[in-house]
Fold each of these.
Amino acid sequence: MDMQFVSVVKLCIKKLCILFLNILFPRQCELCNNTLGNIEAEYLCSNCGNNIEFLEGMRCRICCRPVGIASNAICSECVSRKVYFSECFASGHYDDGLRKLIGRFKYGKKRYLAAAIGKRMVQSGKNLLNDNTDIITYVPIHWHKRWKRGFNQSEELAQVVSKEYNIQLKELLSRIKRRHGQVSLGRDDRKRNVEDIFEVVDKELVKGKSIMLVDDVITTGSTVNACAKTLIKSGAVNVRVIVAAAVF
Ligand SMILES: [Zn+2]
Ligand SMILES: [Zn+2]
């Protein structure tokens, strides 16, 4: 039988199955609870999906804040910092829709939302495909937090990014200390709070490698910077960061 015909039939059957499943169990938008009209929409209605904007325009390549003219620029705040990663890509600003979506994923323990958030990250970091990345890894969380949540949100996102880019995912870092929550701390305290709390799992995996580090949200960048420092000191040649959202 003609292979093209077979694949068209398979696709039709798949679409019909999705259609019936949607009639039997109508799915709702994760953000506004409206019934999803588009049977292929993954988790958001088109309205909520369109309201989450990608970061456009010139951005500081470290913290993703909007900057004036030159591309590849660093903002005045980042210029005076010791930064161990070469650039950071964020899929959006941590507000409204994206903030809610990440909140449902992380605190609502909706693990499946990693797919929707991770795909946005890949879309926004499309040009990363042209660069050489050897390994994708993620920011580790303390085992206690992981046990309470049931998963590490950064690892879940890294899995999606790794699959979409077809680049191997490896656990390169472990957390050696539990730290206090970052939210209530100022920039200097945040930095001290995360310094030297990571170690590499195996130096041989890191040596000479160009690494893409995945996290969910970047605020001051202290956490990813501490991870990048550990990786660079263990012999990584380059660390770049990709996150779901940036706070600025
Ligand atoms: Zn919606
Ligand atoms: Zn900056």
Amino acid sequence: MNKSQNPEPDIPSVSKMYRHNRRLSNKERLRLFLSLFKREDRVLIVIVADPDSMASAFAVKRLLSRRVSEITIVHPNQIKRLNNLAMQNILKIPMQPLRGTKRDEYSRILLLDSQPPHRKEFANIKFNAVIDHHPLTEGWTADFVDIREEYGAVCTMMSEYLKAARITPSAALATALFYGIKVDTHDFTKKATTNDISCFQHLFKRINQYWLNKIEQSDIRRSELKYFKMAFLNLKVRKHRIYVHIGKIGNPDILVVIADFLTHVHDIGWVIVSGQAGEKLVVIFRCDGYKKNAGRLAERVLGKYGPAGGHKQSARAEIPIKNLPEKFTRNFTTDLLIKIFMKHLD
Ligand SMILES: [Mn+2]
């Protein structure tokens, strides 16, 4: 849109719609949302695929089933996380890439768990409805805007829509929503409202625990088992700390899995795991957080070379190898990892 032009006068600004929507009851909000759709509509639901957005799209699909003629869920990102692939397969959530989708075949386009400025792929899409829990952004508008940034998950908002519509979720939908809340609130250790907690409790009765276990546990590719072997061969323990450089790896997610596994070792305060993924040295930090700060350590030691930081108990650095001093780049080993961090940890 041309920035010098004012938006059409009959479309209220996003912040006005946002404020208006927040005053509605669940029933009123549902009625307003459903009033966007006609029987012959073909609906496109756009999500940046992760558990919260996938489950939310699944819920909207249920909400609109038999109310519109077609519903398609699309995502601009590639789904790489194994837990997310497992969720999609086990719960049978139909999705396709945004790329290659003929948008003009759809009469209504919705965006869930995200806002138009969040991704460049959204720039030229005119969304009819946006439902999200990220902080409100400006410079866009939609016919329907429901943004509640205090919510831990969009899944909670969607559960409220389903409840208002008197729809009992199937086991697959309940499991998806339950998992979405669990992931986005980090098992309720991150921001969450009492609404998140009560939805979680309400959904619990309907989930399939076996599906949930399978989804939560699927995080290692069979081809990645060899990195565990390398981890055990290369790891060294110094002063209640485990250090290990694993060498060249495919997807850095495996470093996270190995680091999390090593935190289970008794009497260990720190775990520092590194590996080379493409042209980057990826370092994963884990600690018990007691008088320790993983994010600060990562930033202090590696921040000068590239992005490094995180939280008290977990942190990550992704350093372009070309930024590292030459002595590190020739042959990176566990001993070198120990040398780098030893002087920063007392
Ligand atoms: Mn979310």
